[in-house]
Amino acid sequence: MNAHEIDYKIHGEEMQFVEVELDPYETVVAEASSFMMMDDGVEMKTIFGDGSGQDDGGIWGKVFSAGKRLLTGESLFMTAFTHVGQGKKKVSFASPYPGRIVPLDLSELEGKIICQKDAFLCAAQGVSIGIEFSKKLGRGFFGGEGFIMQKVEGDGLAFLHAGGNIIEKELQIGEVLRVDTGCLVGFTRYVDYDIEMIKGVRNMLFGGEGLFYARLEGPGKVWIQSLPFSRLADRVVSASRKYGNKSKGEGSILGGIGDLLGGDNS
């Protein structure tokens, strides 16, 4: 294997974190701001690019690697955590919002996963985190992720995070699955991904599900999330607008009287 062989344990339910166990000189790379805690003897280092160890083009190779990450909306930098002591040490990375952490062994998944841009959490050093351009205009304009998605390649462990619950679907040759574009987390390399318009004027105008959905055709594996962060954020913004000026008595029969007695003049 080219990637470091790491062990791990996932803790929690709604707000999970992954605890990675490192042998001496093993390294795990992670997105900036995902770090939670680490044992003494683990050394943290900010790196330029994806940390895959495959940037043999010198400084320009590193610039190109970092530039690919910038196109996906991620930071130019990642953080590498290396065990520089003796025995076994642990380092943990936390979910950015309620959901599930999905461990993926790339050596068992054809060496490549294509995923939404903010799904990657951390991986063993040697795993490459790059970009995947869409070759289809419909997918690029209406797929929810634009022309660019993230790809994770290699033969080691990688960890994705997604909202709500996660379901893994195994599609056979020619089997088709239609998914809300925001609910799609990722898929293996041979899954054909395209965008279809929802049929029926009534469905399009009044269905409340948007105008398009993702069409995935096997063979391969697909990961679906039940609560996309965009949907969660929309609900929070909508609720803040609706209830932002209401007091903590909102929802009770005496709420309005309580506002008067309490001097709430908002």
Q: How would you portray this structure in words?
A:
The protein is α+β, with helices and mostly antiparallel strands. The chain contains five helices and 19 strands. The chain has one domain: 4-Layer Sandwich (Double-stranded beta-helix). The chain has helices spanning 58-71, 137-142, 201-206, 229-243, 255-261; strands at 7-11, 17-22, 27-31, 35-38, 42-48, 77-83, 89-94, 99-105, 112-115, 120-124, 128-133, 148-153, 157-163, 166-171, 176-179, 184-188, 192-197, 212-217, 220-225. Residues 137-143 and 201-208 have low confidence and may be disordered.
Looking at this protein, list some descriptive labels.
266 residues; Double-stranded beta-helix; six-stranded antiparallel sheet; 5 helices; 19 strands
Tell me the series of helices and strands, N- to C-terminal. Answer: EEEEEHEEEEEEHEEEEEEHEEHH
Indicate the overall shape. Answer: globular
Question: In which order are the strands of the major sheet placed?
Answer: 5-6-3-10-13-8
Number of helices: 5
Instruction: Tell me what the CATH architecture is.
Output: 4-Layer Sandwich
- Stretches where pLDDT falls below 50 for ≥5 residues? 137-143, 201-208
